[in-house]
Design a protein that fits this description.
single chain, 282 residues, alpha/beta, Rossmann fold, 2 domains, ten-stranded mixed sheet, 10 strands, elongated
């Protein structure tokens, strides 16, 4: 996670994401790309539609945005040295541009701020973050609007013991090493499934395999029965203490009834701690 992208709209929530990205980069000798996307004027409506005239019309806007990015960089990095921050400006559409920038610049991690929302507000509030985690081919770390940064002591990985967990765990343990964090792997089983004993045996075999493979003393495993996996996930902080939640985005599987891609996206709205979403193909 040496190359980190932080899309910003200059909001306090985006600033929190920037601070978190800087902290990760400082421990990893990484680089942060601070990036703002705006909608350029495609025609100046007054002079001509020539490309030269349109560029001249948009140039002052981009200059002002770059100045704002530099001011934000100076404000947040005050007293913090050793991290390279590159400021850039891009053009809408926002989501496609974020993903293209990440690919073109070989980004390892996208860090974004997200706002809690419900009902119709979900259509607008936080929709960019939700769509990015739904499409990104690299991990995305979402920082809630009211979260105050602290070193994560406990990272919780919610999963349904899938083969791709090994790749995800490699990344999670690398992040945990930066902060000397403990990692807990959590499997939820809805009790009405009628397969508790069988699931418990499967989970025990899964944990033994991962413990042998990773040989990590700070790696713990939890098996939790629940009447509603969806409710449990949305109120998970009441059952487990954690400073960061990790999920793998899959199209199917991962607790079929609710851990589908759309649910992973919906967690962007309800999480109270940073949420790291790792694509299964990472």
């Amino acid at each position: 996670m040496k190359r980190i992208l932080v899309p910003t709209d200059f909001s306090p929530t985006a600033e929190r994401a920037f601070r978190m990205a800087l902290d990760i980069a400082s421990k990893n000798k990484g680089t942060v790309h601070l990036y703002h996307i705006y909608a350029p004027v495609k025609s100046n409506f007054v002079y001509s539609d020539s490309e030269k005239e349109i560029r001249r019309y948009n140039s002052p806007t981009e200059t002002n945005i770059l100045k704002r990015l530099q001011r934000l960089k100076k404000k947040v990095m005050s007293g913090q040295a050793g991290v390279s921050v590159i400021t850039s400006v891009g053009h809408s559409p926002v989501i496609n541009n974020i993903l293209s920038f990440a690919k073109d610049n070989h980004i390892d991690l996208i860090v974004m701020g997200t706002q809690g929302a419900s009902g119709l507000n979900r259509v607008v509030v936080g929709s960019v973050a939700a769509h990015v985690i739904g499409k990104s081919e690299i991990p995305v770390l979402l920082v809630p609007e009211k979260f105050e940064w602290k070193d994560p002591e406990q990272i919780l990985f919610a999963t349904n013991y899938h083969e791709t967990d090994k790749k995800a765990l490699t990344l999670i343990l690398a992040l945990a090493k930066l902060y000397s964090s403990s990692v807990s792997v959590l499997h939820l089983l809805e009790t009405h499934s009628g397969q508790t004993a069988r699931e418990q045996n499967t989970f025990d075999g899964y944990t033994q395999t991962l413990q042998r493979e990773f040989n990590e003393p700070k790696l713990q495993f939890h098996f939790l029965n629940t009447t509603s996996a969806t409710e449990t996930m949305e109120n998970l902080d009441e059952k487990f203490r954690y400073d960061m939640l990790v999920m793998v985005r899959r199209k199917r599987g991962f607790i079929e009834s609710f851990f589908i891609e759309s649910f992973t996206q919906n967690m962007a709205y309800v999480t109270t701690a940073p949420l790291l979403v790792i694509p299964a193909e990472v």
